[in-house]
Amino acid sequence: MAVAVLRPASATRPPGLVGSAIAVAAVALLPVAYLVIRVATAGEVAWAAVTSASALAALGRTVALAAAVTATTLALGVGLGWLTSRTSLPGRRLWAVLLALPLAVPSYVGAFTFIGFFGPGGILPDLVGSDRGWAPFGFGGAWAALSLFTYPYVLLPVRAALARMDRGQEETARGLGASGWKVFRRVTLPQLRPAIVAGGLVAGLYAISDFGAVSLLRYDSLTRVIFIQYQTAFDRTTAAALALLLVVVAVAALAAEQGARGRARYHARAARRPAAVLPLGRWRWPAMVACAAVALAGLGVPLVVMVSWLVRDLLGAAASLSGLGRAALHSVTASGLAAGAAVAASIPVAGLIVRYPARVTDLVERSVYSGLGLPGISIALALVFFAARYATPIYQTLALLVFAYVLRFLPQAVGAARTSLGQVNPHTEESARSLGARPLAVLRRVTLPQIAPGLVAGAFLVWLTAMKELPMTLLLGPAGFDTLATQLWSHATAGFLARAAAPALVLVVVSGIPLALMALRREVRPE
């Protein structure tokens, strides 16, 4: 049966583990260090930039968007995760795949296709005979787009946690007379809490740092203002000062996540029985309508629009096939290298966070998560600064681009490893050490096999998100190193929508196939 276990903070911390985690955290702080140096040398100019009315208004808009997206992704992720894991939902395995696939759609692609579907001259206005359309701009459009394409960050870990959960506690609670809702609220939900808050944190930080969707949908969040300062006003000092505001927001979000997560750990016994199916009865049809609505909005609309663009201009679509294979190979290679490096770096960080909670642990965690709250352009310019001055051999190389991916998306690997390790009973590791096994042997033979599914999930999330990354790839990619994301963006911004549709579709397919396999692998098989 699962039990709540708290590892005492006073337990002896292995020096190697602490040193490795601190080294990872120190490297992750490089972009923040650049911002601090830039702002410190500016003095009053930087202070005036962050305290101006326009900056504070942009900060308020950013926090409001992140809060709305986080709340929506939590509601969708937990609700859909429960429906596709624990209920008699018809076609449950198919819905599990379809509802995970919106994660394969980059937010800027989703924004493009929303405009192409709802905007003037779009598919929906043409169908209903309207000349005006319903342009999804501003807060509402950004909120809908980011929520629809980030809720799988919550859905996937929730389903994985439900798959690993033993039903013994739930049966005991029901045997003592607790209602189904009470069992969910007091037994199931606390065990899901680490997965829920970790996914919500990633979705919220993604909303804070997103550039493509908010720019296309004309929502003036801090990332859009920062990009304008960099690209239009050429004011790196103001942009750096504003980026530091995003770091403060990210740290505050992490502090809230740590409080919501709590210190309790829930460890399942090795032998566990799958959960029983909850009959939906007459609610199965409303549940199917809800699943279909989310899948159509997050996956159906982008696919329909991209295919229609291809059909409208077959000649332009054929022209876009030039170099498509090379761009796909570049995307897979760079993101694959980043995924492997991020998982390797996440292991000591997750081990310190889960097994040895303390003040230094909190500092390490916040340092690692700082990158996910920064816009890609800030991280890219920070690395250009450091590489040009201190690491010239890797300047404008694939290694620097991969390093940037790792800095930004490392929190995704850490979150997956932390959630998986949190469900491993530490007594198994202690037993191995008591039998004379060295720490590295315990890690290799005991811990890693048990957390391997979480590490694979984290690697995939990093790989998937790096495939979609745009600003860092544009600024740090070696000369001639075009990816699917950069090809898509260059065609779309030039107005060649049919040519943009081809790399967009390839990107969704390349990302979607392994995502579908992962969703099926996590399928719970109730009795």
Fold blueprint:
Blueprint: E1 3-5, H1 15-28, H2 30-42, H3 44-51, H4 53-86, H5 92-98, H6 107-118, H7 123-128, H8 138-150, H9 152-164, H10 168-175, H11 180-209, H12 212-216, H13 222-231, H14 236-261, E2 265-267, H15 284-312, H16 314-320, H17 324-355, H18 359-369, H19 376-390, H20 398-422, H21 426-434, H22 439-468, H23 471-476, H24 484-493, H25 497-521
Antiparallel strand pairs: 1-2
Helix pairs in contact: 1-17, 1-18, 2-14, 2-19, 3-14, 4-5, 4-8, 4-9, 4-11, 5-25, 6-8, 6-15, 9-11, 10-11, 11-14, 11-20, 13-14, 14-18, 15-25, 16-25, 17-20, 17-22, 19-20, 20-22, 21-22, 22-25, 24-25
Major sheet: arrangement of strands? 1-2
Strand content range: under 5%
Secondary structure tally: strands = 2
C-alpha-based Rg, rounded: 23 Å
Estimate percent helicity: over 70%
**Structural class by helix and strand composition:** mainly alpha
Number of helices: 25
Shape: globular
Query: How would you spell out the order of helices and strands?
Result: EHHHHHHHHHHHHHHEHHHHHHHHHHH
Span of the ends, CA to CA: 18 Å
How would you describe what is shown here?
The chain has helices spanning about 15-30, 30-40, 45-50, 55-85, 90-100, 105-120, 125-130, 140-150, 150-165, 170-175, 180-210, 210-215, 220-230, 235-260, 285-310, 315-320, 325-355, 360-370, 375-390, 400-420, 425-435, 440-470, 470-475, 485-495, 495-520; strands at about 5, 265. The longest helix is centred in the N-terminal third of the chain and has 34 residues, at about 55-85. The chain is an all-alpha fold and about 525 residues long. A two-stranded antiparallel sheet has the order 1-2. It is built from 25 helices and 2 strands. Mean pLDDT is about 80; it is low at about 1-10 and about 525. It is globular and about 60 Å long.
